[in-house]
Amino acid sequence: GAGVSQSPRYKVAKRGQDVALRCDPISGHVSLFWYQQALGQGPEFLTYFQNEAQLDKSGLPSDRFFAERPEGSVSTLKIQRTQQEDSAVYLCASTHGEALSYEQYFGPGTRLTVT
Amino acid sequence: AQKVTQAQTEISVVEKEDVTLDCVYETRDTTYYLFWYKQPPSGELVFLIRRNSFDEQNEISGRYSWNFQKSTSSFNFTITASQVVDSAVYFCALSVWENYGGATNKLIFGTGTLLAVQP
Q1: What residues of chain B lie within 8 A of the CB of A102, using their CB?
Q2: Over the stretch B90-114, which tens digit does the pLDDT of each residue have?
Q3: Residue A72: left if φ>0, alpha if ψ -120 to 50, beta else—which one?
Q4: Which residues contact A79 (CB under 8 A, 6 or more apart)?
Q5: Distance CA A10, CA B6 (A)
Q6: What is the pLDDT of residues B73-86, one digit of tens each?
Q7: B44, B93, B104 ranked by CB distance to A55: nearest
Q8: Mean pLDDT of residues grouped by 10 in chain A (115 residues)?
Q9: Which of A3, A25, A39, A60 is the most buried (most CB within 10 A)?
């Protein structure tokens, strides 16, 4: 079956521009996560949805970052007024339950470069 | 605080050598899960294994084996007879419950170990 997909795969933005990154989770997956991976680092948690409810946004680095999942499936991560430190790979993951034990299935990521 | 440490930044081996990737974790929770993920050059994280905090049995899957020791808070990963296709970044991750008005089971990753297997 289809895995997690993300679009675009690559995005170049000029400093100050707004960007929107899309995630299509595996069909039927309840939980959706966004992570940010800087070059040479491990992924870092940004936010978590259970269906359409955003239960944890503690990892969002500033109020320029905003995520939504209005119908409990597709999610969008929006970054306003992008800055150079926002350059990273943004990973989306989904899992069919909310238990600790479920492995998260990751998409290929969106590589954002802010110039 | 929850933390995962992968002290080895890069490892280079020659094909057919055995290699062990170290992972040390910190948590005060008694219930948690540990994971290993592989990230090949294509970038997509691939799940390898999951272990819960109550099961300290070692596991073997083909050329891969995992050694979980709660006494030392370690969850090490060994590849036997390495192959060029094993070249990737390997991440160890910890999953615990945290409450921010609702529980979340986010993954806490280490910084990864880049494994290069030379032919």
Answers
A1: 105
A2: 999 998 776 555 556 789 999 999 9
A3: left
A4: A18, A19, A21, A64, A65, A66, A86, A112
A5: 28
A6: 999 999 999 999 99
A7: B104
A8: 91 98 95 95 94 92 97 96 98 84 89 98
A9: A25
